[in-house]
Amino acid sequence: MLKPYEQRFPWNLDWNLLRTFMVVVDEGGITPAAHFFGLKQPTISAALKRLEDIAGCKLVNRSPKHFSVTPLGKVLYAEASKIFGKVSQLPDLMSGLEDQVTGQISIAMASHVVSPHFDAVLARFRALYPRVSYTISTVDSRDVVAHIQ
Q1: Structural contact between residues 22 and 84, judged by C-beta atoms closer than 8 angstroms
Q2: Which CATH architecture has domain 100-148?
Q3: What is the end-to-end Cα distance of the chain in Å, rounded?
Q4: CA of 104: how far to CAs of 8, 26, 99, in Å?
Q5: Which stretches are transmembrane (predicted)?
């Protein structure tokens, strides 16, 4: 069972803070990250402080002459990188989906029907529309007629 803090964490987290943290790590410090974003250094420092407060731990060691990522910061950076990678894939995953045929088709047929043509049509349909699923029910002839009516 998750502790109340663990349950609230994803809802309280400002996802932009993760992105800012990644840039701080990638750029090797607060000032280079500020230059990257075109912001002032105190803005980036405040964002990092907010993320550390939310995470409940120190993520980087910093002083005027020193910058390093803490072990917990390295864990957060690795996970944030995975999240960023997944989010980066969304446009590709979603592109063209509106053109794809999806759905469910139910087919009712009599058990005595054998048709190579029907089998070929189903094979072509499946190749053209792989995101469509279908079920085939074998029923009595009168039930097929009832389904059609």
Answers
A1: yes
A2: 2-Layer Sandwich (3.30)
A3: 52
A4: 37, 46, 16
A5: none
CA dist 34 and 52 (Å) reads 18
Euclidean distance between CA atoms 30 and 2, whole angstroms = 33
**DSSP codes joined into one string, 48-63:** HHHHHHHHTS--EEEE
Residue 98: enclosing H or E segment and its boundaries?
A: none
CA distances from residue 1 to 8, 9, 38, 63 in whole angstroms, order as listed: 13, 14, 43, 39
Whole-angstrom Cα distance, residue 74 to residue 138?
A: 58
Comparing 91 with 57, the larger pLDDT belongs to 57
Candidates 148, 50, 55; CA nearest to 108 is: 148
Q: Are 57 and 72 in contact (CB under 8 A)?
A: yes
Q: Give the residues across from 136 on adjacent strands.
A: 107
**Whole-model pTM above 0.90?**
no
pLDDT tens-digit readout, 66-86: 999 999 999 999 999 988 888
In CATH, what number does 4-94 get?
1.10.10.10
